[in-house]
């Protein structure tokens, strides 16, 4: 660098250090103004970036949402109507009253229109009244234990079988009390396919005293070796119809047979018979064609290796097997260690 410039630079530094400078501290007003300005700038930038509508809780619910949101509203309504029915509240409600009781007043107009015109009217668990109100629609119209007992008797007389406990719990308000009071009038049987409980009427008029001899004969007959199909076949031969389970059955998935993996057989390449006159074979270091020896091929045909091979022959380091090479290496290491020991002893003696 030019020495004149360096001298000017040093002089400028001395003059700057000699002149005193006083810094004024910023007041609180200045700080507040600076913060306000920064907030305004941030708000402007955020407003310019987010030009689309914001997604808050209120805006999300009022938007014309996806089908999952709509069916979530519908499922909540159905659960609430079922709970009302099970508690004994049977008076119908308008759509606004239902939404008010389920805390869903912020539902959009399009969702309301969909509920009123399509969803609630076509739902099998909701009953629509002529005046536009809604009520829960149970499987069986039973209100107390007497109507439940009457329904079970009709099922028994008509031969329709039993009733699912789930349907009774859904249809009868305060179901647990009614079932406890009718414990002697009802029979519980669990279905073997899905373990669901079914209620039957306990017809006590059909009970009769059986002689002990018949009981002994019944217990003496062994049916361990017979399955249900054979027992059913025997009863049909005797003219007796057996009870059949018409409930849902699990589909039997056929087992896949494991196919035995065949070993791959490698096919030998076929000789090219049309090229027999052209092909040549090398056997025992000889070039043959059609079984006639044309010329002998030397085993070593690299002249630049000859010098190295001769050098190894002079040093006697060509071996027939690996064991010979290993033994020679061990002997060499032993000789080197002996020489080192001799050198160390000779140096000690000289000292």
UniProtKB/TrEMBL annotation:
It is found in: Nucleus. One of its GO terms (molecular function) is DNA binding. Residues 62-143 form the TFIIE beta domain. Residues 1-13, 22-40 have a biased composition (Basic and acidic residues). GO terms for cellular component: transcription factor TFIIE complex. Its main location: nucleus. The keyword Transcription regulation applies. Residues 1-59, 243-271 are annotated as: Disordered. InterPro entries: TFA2_Winged_2, TFIIE-bsu, TFIIE_bsu_DNA-bd, WH-like_DNA-bd_sf, WH_DNA-bd_sf. It holds the Pfam family TFA2_Winged_2. Residues 252-267 have a biased composition (Basic residues). One of its GO terms (biological process) is transcription initiation at RNA polymerase II promoter. Keywords: DNA-binding, Nucleus, Transcription, Transcription regulation. Recruits TFIIH to the initiation complex and stimulates the RNA polymerase II C-terminal domain kinase and DNA-dependent ATPase activities of TFIIH. Both TFIIH and TFIIE are required for promoter clearance by RNA polymerase. PANTHER family: TRANSCRIPTION INITIATION FACTOR IIE SUBUNIT BETA, TRANSCRIPTION INITIATION FACTOR IIE, BETA SUBUNIT. This is TFIIE beta domain-containing protein. It comes from Arctia plantaginis. The lineage of its organism: Eukaryota, Metazoa, Ecdysozoa, Arthropoda, Hexapoda.
């Amino acid at each position: 660098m030019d020495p004149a410039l360096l001298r000017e630079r040093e002089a400028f530094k001395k003059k700057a250090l000699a002149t005193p400078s006083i810094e004024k501290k910023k007041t609180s007003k200045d700080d507040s103004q600076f913060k306000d300005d920064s907030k305004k700038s941030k708000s402007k930038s955020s407003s310019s970036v987010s030009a689309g509508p914001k997604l808050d809780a209120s805006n999300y619910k009022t938007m014309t949402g996806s089908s999952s949101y709509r069916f979530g509203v519908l499922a909540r309504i159905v659960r609430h109507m079922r709970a009302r029915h099970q508690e004994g509240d049977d008076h119908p409600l308008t759509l606004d009253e239902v939404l008010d009781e389920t805390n869903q007043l912020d539902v959009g107009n399009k969702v309301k229109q969909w509920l009123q015109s399509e969803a609630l009217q076509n739902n099998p668990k909701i009953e629509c009244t002529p005046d536009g109100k809604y009520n829960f629609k149970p499987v069986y119209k039973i209100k107390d234990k007497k109507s439940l007992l009457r329904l079970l008797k009709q099922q028994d007389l008509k031969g329709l079988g039993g009733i699912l406990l789930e349907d009774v719990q859904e249809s009868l308000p305060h179901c647990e009390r009614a079932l406890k009071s009718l414990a002697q009038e009802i029979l519980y049987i669990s279905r073997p396919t899905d373990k669901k409980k079914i209620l039957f009427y306990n017809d006590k008029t059909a009970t009769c005293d059986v002689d002990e001899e018949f009981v002994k004969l019944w217990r003496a007959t062994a049916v361990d070796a017979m399955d249900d199909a054979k027992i059913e076949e025997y009863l049909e031969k005797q003219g007796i119809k057996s009870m059949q389970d018409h409930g849902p059955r699990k589909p039997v998935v056929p087992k896949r047979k494991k196919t035995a993996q065949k070993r791959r057989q490698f096919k030998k390449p076929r000789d090219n018979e049309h090229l027999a006159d052209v092909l040549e074979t090398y056997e025992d270091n000889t070039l043959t064609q059609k079984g006639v020896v044309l010329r002998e091929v030397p085993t070593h045909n690299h002249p630049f290796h000859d010098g190295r091979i001769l050098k190894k022959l002079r040093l006697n380091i060509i071996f027939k097997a690996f064991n010979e090479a290993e033994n020679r290496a061990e002997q060499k290491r032993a000789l080197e260690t002996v020489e080192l020991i001799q050198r160390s002893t000779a140096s000690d003696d000289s000292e």
